[in-house]
Amino acid sequence: MSELLLELKNVTKQFKGGTVALDNISFSIDADEPSIIAIAGESGSGKTTLGLMAMGFLTASTGSVLYRGNDLAEMSGSDHKEFRKEVQAVFQDPFAVYNPFYKVDHIMEVPIANFKMASSKKEAREMMEQALISVGLRPEETLGRFPHQLSGGQRQRIALGRALLLRPKLLIADEPVSMVDASLRATILEAMDKLNKEFGITVLYITHDLTTAYHVSDYILILYKGSIMEAGDIESIIRNPQHPYTQLLIGSIPWPDLDRVWGEDIAIIDIEEDTSEESRVGCKFAGRCPHVMDKCKVAPPPLYWPDDNNRVASCYLFDDKPVLPGDDVGTLFRSKKVAVSR
Amino acid sequence: MSREHILQIKNLDVQYYTDAGIVYANNKINLELKAGERLGLVGESGSGKSTLALAILGMIKPPGGIAGGEILLDGRDITKLDEEETRQMRGREISMIPQGAMNSLNPVMRVKDQIIDSVIDHELGLGKEEMEEMVRYALEAVELDRTVGNMYPHELSGGMKQRACIAIAIAMKPKVIIADEPTSALDVVTQRQVMQTIRRIQEEMGAAVIMIGHDMGLMAQFVDRLAVMYAGQMAEVAPKEGAFRAPMHPYTQMLIESLPKLGAKGEFHGIPGITPLLRDLPPGCVFNPRCPQSFGPCKEVMPKFLEHRPNQWVACHLYENESEPARS
Questions:
Q1: Taking a contact as any Cβ pair under 8 Å apart, which residues of chain A between 199 and 218 contact chain B?
Q2: Fewest beta carbons within 10 Å, which of A191, A273, A330, B145?
Q3: B224's torsion region: left (phi>0), alpha (psi -120 to 50) or beta?
Q4: CA distance A79 to chain B (A)
Q5: According to the model, what pLDDT value does residue B321 have?
């Protein structure tokens, strides 16, 4: 068995005040098969919390997060430094990550200095130029400039270039395109795709936007109120969602396609908020689900294989189907040969 | 003028006078809006779409100013109104649904009072009963419970706050509603519900809507016509069918190409290059430095905005010799 890069083992995160942001999530990423995995959900689904935990910025309330088999919470200094190099992040706001007083070169110079990656200024400069070219930027148009002189799309690609500089194994991109103009989004997604395909970097693409998720990702994990609703092959899930929540989510997307009618596939109780008591013990979606049954309100459903080996759905509608062995949905995010062994 | 057009914008120029030079935010904008029509206004940040919206609302403030052209609302040039007349027009005849509902409401005022506030300001001479009736109508129209009127913004969810903003905008039954990315802060499920509400109210009131934004999916599903702005100019105005299925301006073509669709997975078509600065526009066509189809006249002559296909207006040299324009 190949080594696991990152592993979340039955992770629950409860914030002060009682909010459960993640509820018993198990999910692993393989080191040998770089892929793009979308973590999708609405606000409050826990997707950003999941990303922050994978980056080691938050610790689990229960359960553990392992990197190459080492618990992030108990890592030694040198292992931790290695982790900081191999796991990189790109955030939502292309303005906030830059200090307006420094030229954009700064965010690339710091990691080069910290990790002593270059022996001379010239070498450092070459590394920076190479990284920028890899994300589709012209170094002469970007280096030496201040953040405000560049577009949001350019700034976001510099952030990707900075991540690439460190030759990471895992890139966590939290809503990297949501604050960028639609016409520039494609350039960022393209750069992300290239990082995956050419440099073998696994990307966790955290987003609420299922259209771009579909476009760029191989696999998807759909969260709702801290629980996994559906996970697996993105093609199967977007084209033929099985979980009632996924159906609602995908039916709500306004596609830029005149042949599709918005919301025509939706047969769901349309309520915005669900604060019902039963949603805390049973299935999180029970209060909004048109197929809700008594048992949905008693205990959360396990992950069933609704149709094929490509995906699982946490829904009692499929309780005559086999259950995913173990809790780790990450097994679905590897080549389909692995997933078939059920 | 034709009676069917509720709003006509003719050769509108809006400029900002800054220390660094004049910013040409709107250049010779021509646009017409029929009563009850839904028009989408798209463009990158800095393309001038928000300036155009502010101009229609009579809210261009120094250092900006309207440098030329006219905006006719029901035949009356609103650029000629004084401040008090503009204030009376705003809210009553043209209103706006703001972008960030989260930050648009007054946190220390009940929703009900915020609806009444704009009504009182217009001195319609309504009694207390009539005001209450207006609040009831507005809340009902946006599908909010009557009790929400007595709540404060922090007690509402994102979707409810956006609905409260819509209630304020429609309380006085305006003829034109400008919606600036009304759902960009909302989740997809809530977005669909809010957009359905806007659509239903707009149809019931017979109001025209200008939807500003850059979510082309939302545009495809909501509007009748699409206006595409680039660098302060109107690149193309066309019925939705024309704009999405047979876009004419190279910028519109690339914009449509760049959209993620089902099928064609993993293909990325960004638009290379960046938008020019509005105070330093290139000579000729403003899009020529990024245009893959640029040729002879593009670098020298600014293309005219002409009706090259029925109802499809385009500013592009590619079509200028193709056919005689219907009118100019």
A1: 208, 210-212, 214-216
A2: B145
A3: alpha
A4: 35
A5: 76
- For A208-263, how does the pLDDT look when each residue is reduced to its tens digit (9 = 90+)? 889 889 989 999 999 999 999 999 999 999 999 999 999 999 888 888 888 888 87
The C-alpha atoms of residue A322 and residue B175 are separated, in whole angstroms, by: 58
Please list every residue in chain A whose beta carbon sits closer than 8 Å to the beta carbon of residue B192: 252, 254, 262-263
Lowest-pLDDT range, A194-198, A328-332, B307-311, B324-328?
B324-328
Verify whether the Cβ–Cβ distance A252 to B269 is below 8 Å: no
CA-CA-CA-CA dihedral for A280, A283, A284, A288, to nearest 10? -120
Which residues are CB-contacts of B321 (< 8 A; sequence separation ≥ 6)? none
A151 touching B, CB under 8 A?
A: yes
Domain ranges of chain A: 4-217, 244-340
In the numeric block, which tokens belong to residue A130?
A: 């190479």
Vertex A190 angle, CA A146 and B220, to 5°: 100
Domains of chain B: which residue ranges? 5-93+174-319
Q: Please tell me if residue A272 touches chain B, with a CB cutoff of 8 Å.
A: yes
Q: Provide φ and ψ at A173, rounded to 5°.
A: -110, 110
- The enclosing H or E element of A210 equals helix A210-216
User: Residue A320 class from Cβ within 10 Å (0-12 exposed, 13-18 middle, 19+ buried)?
Assistant: exposed
Amino acid (1-letter code) at residue A263: G
Give the bridge partners for B179, in sequence order.
B97, B211
Lowest-confidence segment of A201-210, A215-224, A331-340, B183-192 by average pLDDT: A331-340
Pick the CATH number of B5-93+174-319 from 3.40.525.10, 3.30.1330.30, 3.40.50.300, 3.40.50.620: 3.40.50.300
* Average confidence (pLDDT) over A56-82: 92
Residue with tokens 């994102």: B158
CB contacts, 8 Å: B254 with chain A: 183
Q: Does B260 sit within 8 Å of A212, measured CB to CB?
A: yes
Rg (CA), chain A: 21
Residue B196: which residues within 8 A CB-CB, separation 6 or more?
A263
Fold of A4-217: Rossmann fold (3.40.50)
CB burial string B79-116: b at 16+ within 10 A, e below: bebeeeebeebbbbbbbbbbbebeebbeeeebbbebbb
- The single-letter code of the amino acid at A247 is Q
CB contact under 8 A, A255 and B221: yes
**Chain B: residues touching A (Cβ < 8 Å):** 44-45, 157-160, 187-193, 195-196, 214-222, 240-241, 244-245, 254-256, 258-262, 265-266, 268-272, 274-275
Query: What's chain B's length in residues?
Result: 328
Count CB pairs under 8 A between chains A and B.
120
Answer yes or no: do A263 and B192 touch at CB < 8 A: yes
User: What is the Cα–Cα distance from A278 to A264, expressed in whole angstroms?
Assistant: 29
Residue of B42, B45, B151, B187 to mutate for A, most A C-beta atoms under 10 A: B187
B241: nearest CB among A152, A193, A258: A258
State both tokens at B297: 């006249």
